[in-house]
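Page 42, continued from yesterday. The earlier attempt failed because a stray header line got pasted into the input along with the sequence. Redoing it now with the clean sequence only.
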Amino acid sequence: MRTLVFFLLCCLSTLAIHAQKPVSIALRPGASEPETRAANVLRSYLQQITGQPVPLQSAEKVPDGYAPVLLGKHPALQQFGFQQPPALPDDAFFLEGKNGAFLIAGGGDMGAEYGVYTLLELLGCRKYSPRDSFIPDIKNLQLPAYPPATEIPAFPYRELHYEPAFDEGWARWHKLKTRRNKDADWGLFVHTFQHLCPAERYFAEHPEYFAWNGAQRSPGQLCLSNDTVRQIVTDALREKIREKPDAKYWSVSQNDNFDYCKCPRCAAADARYGSPAGTLLAFVNKIAASFPDKTLSTLAYQYTRQAPKGIKPAKNVSVCLCSIECNRGQSIEDGCTDFARDVRAWSALTSHLMIWDYVVQFRSYVSPFPNWHTLQPNLQFFRQNGVNMVFEQGSGRDCSEFSDMRAYLLAKLMWNPQANMDSILTDFGDGYYGSARPAIWAYIHRLTEAVLKGDRQLTIYNIPQNEPFLDSAGLDIMNRELGQLLRTHRDDSVFINRMMGAYTPVLFARMERSKTDSTQLATMLKWPTAQLDRNLRAFTDGCARAGIRNLHEGGYTPDQYRLDYLAFVDNMRRAAASRTTSVSLTTPASATYAKGDPNELINRRIGETDYRYNWLGFQGVDLQATATVGGTEPVSTIQVSFLQDQQSWVFFPEKVVFEISPDGQHFQQVLEENIVIRAEGGKRVRLVEARFDPQPVRAVRVTAVNIKTCPAWHTCNGNPCWIFADEVGVW
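This time it went through. Structure tokens are written below.
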């Protein structure tokens, strides 16, 4: 009897499989454009999944013999037992699956399409990155049973400034603002004073339009208490709106510097409102009154971050609050309590609050940056405080450390901050890294634990040399483990390419930390140049395979890094032969850099273009250093390097003088070099050198004259500026 029952069940099962209805898509007659678009997207994917044509039907009733996916408020809802879904806000969608059918209804322009992507993920499809997707092969596809569910995004506006999100298809799949929509929606986007009242046009004849910095007028920011400035900005904005009338958002916001106006009227307003943000809001609110059908966005950024008192944003003014100063080693609530205070204060003032958050290491896109444990609690905190717009700034169009995985996770959490983060990452890891996922997880866990056990400081503008969680022993372990994974999968080119997003950061951190480690430097200096170049090419090749084109936001390529590293080692070899034995300073250096230790000038470690390592800094004062010279051989050359990074208030000295002494007491000048200081972008190192007839020298004196304050043409003119010097070399 049992055998007979089993046989009958098998037969019924076989009949059920053969009787399974093919999938179709049902649109109501006169369906909307968003529904039609969503239906076409779904049809394309279903045909790839099944390998068969999928009919798209438009009729009052669904023909017999099909398992339909119904889009929108289809007349055949009751035919399959569906209730008409409620009205849905923009981007939201409703899903239900039963009785062999599936219903998708969406709100606004994208809701139905977002519902389609969620159904496709239920069927097993994944879009890990613009280059890496998975579409299952299901010949006998069955639509899933799914309880009625409405999904509404936690944040109505979700923008991810990360390489994957620049791909239209990936951004749509992950329910994000696409670049096309962003460009259509925004007329001007942040730091717009320079466009609405440009210094190039007005500063020469009307310096009063611009900021008084306490010493003089500066072109860096506008004077917000000047009525003429407000009218100029209003007129300029009106003209720009005329050129792009359909754009909804228009930013009227400060330039990207600290040089805000401190004239008596602006200072009085700042005091009255308790923050420069109040003076800015008063300015923007008056302009917004002229454009009631547009949303004017302004920044709460750096000096305007603190919410004001006694004033609120107008109804058509949106505030973009920026977390640039925050520690990424802890959640905002735990590690950046002053910013958490600002979020709460601004949310009490306006329902139009946007957060501009930062999620990568901007000075080193490929440096390990273990901020995983902060991403979800931060988004949850934003949601709890009524934030309705989120902009997560990653590495822009550049690939970076774990950029595919971090972007994937952020997209999911921006839609729903309460989603199970572990499940999201495990699902991604299994599909993207396969059997190597546990090893990748162990690597991330080790870095995260190192941050949590240390001082928990993780900033977006740091370098591996200054990161305490990146110790040499730990980096060596990670290098061995990840290297073993690569060797194990050496024939799997797709795996290798994906793994390089994790491995190249380890290589980079090891190479960078070597620059400030005397032991590692001594070892490296013994290598033949060919061996060093092979190691550097392993890094650049890894970057190429990972799609990493730039190492930081300034556009610095891996190939240029290789050449600069080789030059750095060559300079180190030359510096190793320098005859200096001790050094003293007439005026102390700043303790902020190299702890102000004068020996930084003679430690044989060469400074490059980052002032935070291997440089000695002097703010607003001159440098005068006296170095003793060892040995009895005659001396014929003196060298010193200086750095320029004008954006950071770092300038070359205006004059450099070299003097030599045969006895350490009496000095004679061998060089005086005057340097013309002009406006220049980027970072530059200038080598100042004196060559003279060989002669006995017991001491050299180097004097570098600081221009003292930023020049008049600089956005922060009048503020005390820096000179940075490195390596007094004597041969």
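Notes: DSSP finds 21 helices and 26 strands in the chain.
Reminder to self: strip header lines before submitting.
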